[in-house]
Design goal:
- The complex is a heterodimer of chains A (158) and B (420).
- Chain A has 158 residues and is of the alpha/beta class.
- Chain A has helices spanning 12-15, 25-31, 40-43, 64-71, 84-93, 136-143, 147-155, and strands at 3-6, 49-52, 76-79, 97-99, 113-115, 120-122, 128-130.
- A 4-stranded parallel sheet of chain A has the order 1-2-3-4. Chain A has a 3-stranded antiparallel sheet with strand order 5-6-7, with no helix packed on it.
- Chain A is globular.
- By secondary structure, chain B is α/β, with parallel strands linked by helices.
- Chain B is built from 15 helices and 18 strands.
- In chain B, the strands form 5 sheets. Chain B has a 5-stranded parallel sheet with strand order 4-3-2-5-6, with helices on both faces. Chain B has a 5-stranded parallel sheet with strand order 16-15-14-17-18.
- Classes of the chains: A alpha/beta (158), B alpha/beta (420).
- The interface between A and B is large, with 40 and 46 residues.
Amino acid sequence: MRVWRLPPEVDTDQLAPGATMKFGLDVVAQHCLAAIRPDFAVGVRPGDVIVAGAGFGIGSSREQAAAVLVHLGLAAVIAPSFAGLYFRNAINVGLLPLRCARALEILDGESVTVDPRGATVMRADGQVLPCDPLPGFLLDRVEAGGLLPELKRRYRHS
Amino acid sequence: MSATTLAQKLIARAAGRAQVQPGEFVTCRVDLAMFHDSSGPRRLAPMLAEVGAPIWDKDKVVLVIDHYLPEADDDARRIVRIARHWAAEQRLPHVYDGLGICHVVMPQHGHVRPGLFGVGGDSHTCTGGAFGAYLFGIGATEMLGVLVSGEIWLQVPETLFMRWSGLLTDGVTAKDMMLAMIGRFGMNGGRYQAVEYCGEAVQALPMAERMTLANMSAELGAQVGLVAPDETTRDWLAAHGAPHVDPAPWHSDEDAPGTRHYFDASTLAPQVALPHSPARVRAIDGLPPTPVDVAYIGACTGAKLDDMRAAARVLAGYQVADGVQLLVAPASVADAAAAEREGIVRLLRDAGAQFLPSACGACAGYGVQIPEGATVISSTARNFRGRMGAATAQVYLGSPYTVAASALRGRIADPREILR
């Protein structure tokens, strides 16, 4: 998992710019983080992870800001803290948000391994960074691909 | 029973529990689910069809069409058409189409009352906290879950009490209080907990100003921003379609748990947030000379009737400076009509203001956009880079008084110099 390091307080309008909100995720994805990391949208590969500073996802309730990262194939976002609304949205669209107090020790371009159940991130040199464990029902939701598949199962026979 | 906060009481009621403790996960019954044309039908309709379940209680659903109006292009027309079509198909009983911005329109039509628990598909849904309602923003997929189940999970928050003693001086507003707090604690300083605004200065605020406090709790990173309801709340609601509310049960106990922060309203100067964060805040007297091209009075945060009255007090009998464009987008049609009746619209027009439709407009770069390279002073809530649609615009945030004073002087200016 290759790391994209981002600054603190990456906001929803950087992840999903307002002018792209009329369109689908394919268009939002082309402009994702354009204002702060123009190489991201073209360079990101499925399985990559974002490691960011505190307050990731501040701003709007637009869940495209989380869904666009799923669309681009990101495996997780690791940060010392998240905006609460973004954290909920991430879980609901199947993006793994990991709170890790020592996230900023991780370097840009480094290769890391994430263990969601064990709540750890293993760095390239084998060092293991602890994360805050997600409550089981939320981890299940992320692993199921978000809330939509869960609702489809629950209401299928109703 | 131990002493509890207003937030705990609101959640306990919605969870059907006698009491809840901070940190607990609970499931709450939802009294109100609001969404707009951007977060709502276009995203919810296909997912709802996929799930194949009906809306749990249409009487508890409110749809406000405000983001893509007036339709600027074919894509906007398509989004608005989807919203209208779906509302008709679902026979939604509470639809507000073109009447203004959701967070202002909702209480103006009696949908928000003390004790209520609800969600909205917009981050500024917390505006309803001004009425002692537990209202918070969620994304579209989570809204889908609410629409089919009528429920939502929550981790019971701690409360951060923001206690403001003293009284604000003339030309200083709730917006300045919020900018001061966001500057001090940062955009995630609320840690997704509950914030409660209290103290003499808060109790003295009219409803519109309390709404500004609650609204910008989003920029403080809180889940909700509450004001304990009182006679001011009751009287305002009685005049807006929600008579006979009882504010009495909805307050924090005196020794309720929480973190307490203290502020003095009487010494607060007008505050300005510098580009590109609502947390980069300075007192206005500490700013270098900053010429402006555009002055914007708009959004759910800063274009209610009281906000336009503030601008009018500054601009009465004057003309905005040469080269400055003053734009006013009233928060709701009702606010615009009241401003018209009071003569405020004419007064602001005479001063050089250009009126825009009552919609989200330039605040989030949805319709009207700010020109590239412009320096803007705005009464809105957010000045993220590019948010208003121009990546190179420099957006400063201030109160409606400050925006009006800046339009008049052609540079960011202290309204107290003019009101004096």
